[in-house]
Amino acid sequence: MNSPAQQKVLTGFGIGSNIEPERHIHTALSALCREFPDLLMSPIYRCKAVGFDGAPFLNLVVASRNTQPLSALQALVKRLEAASGRSGHETKYSGRTLDIDILFHGGLVCRTDQIQLPRKDVVKYPYVLKPLTDILPDWVHPERHCTAAELWQRLIDAAGSEQLLLEQHGVHPTDIRLDTPPRLL
Question: How wide is the angle at C-alpha 120 spanned by C-alphas 118 and 122, nearest 5°?
Fold first, then answer.
């Protein structure tokens, strides 16, 4: 007897780099596209370093519907970071060849030393929420029970305007186009 097909869940990843960012992000996106043929990619944003003086980061959000367990996704993220030369022993606020965070995995709410889902960065940082809103405005935060677009609007309202919000946080749209083509979910 065949087991029922595993249900696909939507998983979001935040990707950033400020050390040879175009090269490392392109390599990561190529690997993610091979792993997840339906990968959806946001525009890329240039953002000032947070918590330290350093080169600006390139940041984006990608998402995929997949059947992989969280442990497999965590292992994939760590492999991709290691392949970029990241040791995993960097200080919290420092440059990164590649930083990939799992932002959410379906409606899972999880808080451990190893992972927090949904990641708090989603509601805290415009460089995460803006690209998430660009590709998944109707994504619903499993704890706050509102959409990415509603969360984004709250940040805009608190800042006074979208332009002020982006300027305050040093977030700037780019026209960077990597060779990996965007796909739709």
Answer: 80
